[in-house]
Amino acid sequence: PEHPSFESVGEDLGGKFDDYYVQLVDTKTAGFYDGIGSLLVKLHSGDGDSSSMSGVQLGALTNACVEYAHAVLKANCPEC
Fold first, then answer.
1. With contact defined as beta carbons under 8 Å apart, do 22 and 14 qualify?
2. Which residues, in sequence order, are CB contacts of 44 under 8 Å at separation 6+?
3. Cβ atoms of residues 62 and 22 within 8 Å
């Protein structure tokens, strides 16, 4: 931590790791459990038992980079 390039090298390596990790996302490496994709579509579109139900905003909490969460959602639920 005391080396002058510690932070810049760490940021560079972290960015490279995130970029590589996001490229690995597909339904095999980060697939949803059965039924989750259709549940998200129903929640987002408001298709439920009640006619007064309107769609809800979807969100995700992750300890990975934001791009990873976006890639997982896009791979598993392109309608969301």
1. no
2. 55, 56, 57, 58, 79, 80
3. no
